[in-house]
Structure formats: C-alpha cells, structure tokens
Protein 1
Amino acid sequence: MIDVYCVKVGDKYDRSFVEKLKDGVSKHLKTKHNFHCVTDKPEKEYDQPIQYPYLKGVWHKLSLFEKVGKNLYFDLDIEINGDIDFLVWNHEDFKKLHVIDSTNWVSNSMGQSEMKFATRNNTFINSSVMRWEDSYSIFEKFMEKRDLYLRLYEGIDRFIYNERERLGLKYKTFTTNKISSWQEDVTKNTIMIYNGKYNDIRPENN
C-alpha cells in the first residue's frame, strides 16, 4: 500500500487543485494507494489536520517526514499526464528520500555567480515530488533549531540542500526523464511542475 500526500495550507490554492491532483493520482497510479491532504481546513474524508500550526506554508511539507512507510508527495501545482507507477515499482527506491534535481532550470534562470548563489541560500533540488519511507531524522533535525532555519531559508528545498552536509541529511534525486518543469521550456511530460505559474493551471482554465 502506498500513501500519497499533498499539503493545502492557507488560501493560495483552492480545493479544486486538491481534487484535480486526487483525480490525476487515481487515474494514473494503478498501484493500490491511499490519498491524503494535510490541511488547516479539513473538510473531506481524506483530509488530515496539520499537526504544527506554528509552521507556515511549505514548511508543513517537512512534517510529512513523520510518516513512516511507502510515501509519495505531490505539490498542488503539478500536473499528471500519464502512468506514474514508475515512481513505486522498485520498493528499494523508498529507502532514501528522493527529490527532483532542479539544476537544469535553476542554472538557466539564475544568471548569477556561484558566490551570490551560495549567499542567497539557493538550491539545486526541488520538492514538488518526493518519495520516502523513513526520513524522520530530517524533520527531527529541523525542529531542533526550527526558529533559526525559518529565518535562514525560504522553504524546505533550501533547508535540505544547504544543510545536507552539516546535518548529514540524506537524499537522492529522481533519475527519470518523466518529470519536467515549465521552466525547462517543456510543454508536456508525464509529470509537469508549474511552480510559480499556478494561476495558469487552475482547473477552470483547463
């Protein structure tokens, strides 16, 4: 059994994004699974209330690492266009956290020196899609100095990437070519990431 998660906190995304993602997962993930939405406004049977109300926005994604088992996560601003069972075929793949390598689109868009990149605590990973089995230690280490990390980093991608050596955070990146960002000038793939462009993919516009 696979557990599939998304997070809806605040008003940036309305419920239609959750329903669209749920429908996409149901249609394109044949492996038996349960769908969950972690939210500050639970209203559906698949909703789970947030556990740490003092966290803001994307930081609630880190709390998902308390979940142990075969887990997938999708941002609400992604689009699923085909079979995604390739994410779960090999059970060994769940043993280490997997995130997306964003080098292609970050390198193309930053236009800044390595020094400036580092001082801005930027990142070459993206957590729009994640896979894990037991990554609780990442959340545990974040909570030890939570206030510091919330000041230092804009989100969990920057935290995981920039603290990976100091805190020994373990992760891998997906090796598939079936995940793309609109920032790579790709118009269609099995999984499309529309981070920063969510208004363009509102369900009523498709």
Protein 2
Amino acid sequence: MDGAKNTLRQFWMRYKAMGVKCLRMSDAPLLSMESIVMIFPMESRFVTDVSSSFCPEILFSSLVNAQICAWSKIDKAAKTVPKMSVARYFILQSIVNHPEGLGVTELARMQRITDGAASKLCDRLESAGLVTRKRLEKDKRRQVIMVTSEGRAVFEEARTHVRQAVAQFFSPLTTEEYFQLIDMLRRLSGEEKYRSQRIKSDSNDQ
C-alpha cells in the first residue's frame, strides 16, 4: 500500500506541477482504480480513462463524500439557530408535517433510524421544550409526539437557513441534472419501489 501510495503521489505532484487536472490510468500502470479510491478517495474524481475497467468504488466513494459534505453544510446552517442541529431539524420536519402527531416508531421509519435513536432524539427535543408527548383520546395506550409553539418557531427559523444551504449545495447542477439526480437516488434507496407498492396498496383499499 505504501508503494502504491508513493507512486500515485509522485504522478499526482507531477501532473499538478504541469497544470494538468486529470491523471490517466495509462500513466500509472502499477495502480488499480481500487487502490486509488482507497488511498485518495477525493482525488479519484480526477482520474480518467476508466471505461475499460469501470470501478463501482469510485461511484460509491463520490456518493459518500457528497453525503458527508451535504450533511455538514446543512448541520452548520441548522446550528445557527439555538437548540437546533441537522438531526433535530429532520425530526421536527416530520412532526411539523403531521399536526396530528407521530409515534416514535413512525418517526424512526421516516428517518430510517432505529426506534431507540428516534426515542433519544425526541427525549432531547422534549427537554428543550420543542416537542411534547400526548396520549390519544381514542387509545390511551398510544403516545404521539407533537410540536410545541416554540418548536414550530425554532423550526421555521432554521428552515430558512437550511433552504439557503441546500440551494447553494445543489447550485452547480442544471435543472435537468437536478431531477435526474432525484430519480437516480430514489431508485438506489428503493424509494420508488416503496412508493409504487404504497400506491398499489392504497388503490386496493378503495
């Protein structure tokens, strides 16, 4: 690994000195795309000439890097508002969109986290005065999470900053690329399959 790392660094420094932004695979025959992704995941986007040996690791690495970057930017934007973070923001978003309240299990499913993680987040939000727990009149055994007036105000203030951060993050994309990305990410996450199954189920219930 050290030998491969030194080899890539030598090629990379040479190309940077020459003002070249891309490194062709043919210029580094001792390296594989897998090793480049493992050693320098960020630099791997500058490597070209990979059509003969497509490497899914590059795509996965780029996807992870983009997700980390997006999460960091949104978290920074959300934290400009006291008592807020990106995790709290998304939990509050789900609750605000459901005025009737949501159970912890429902919140966990929406956020794709465990029931335990959702419960801890709700505990912290409740301690901060942003949400409250309420038992349903029709079913006293069931408890739902509802947003407080302070929670709604904090969320609305944070949403302004988050929307600006999101718009800035996606600004390099054209409108066509924007919707193409939405479609591809939905397919990768299984969201389209879930939505089609839900629509089919709703139709059968009618």
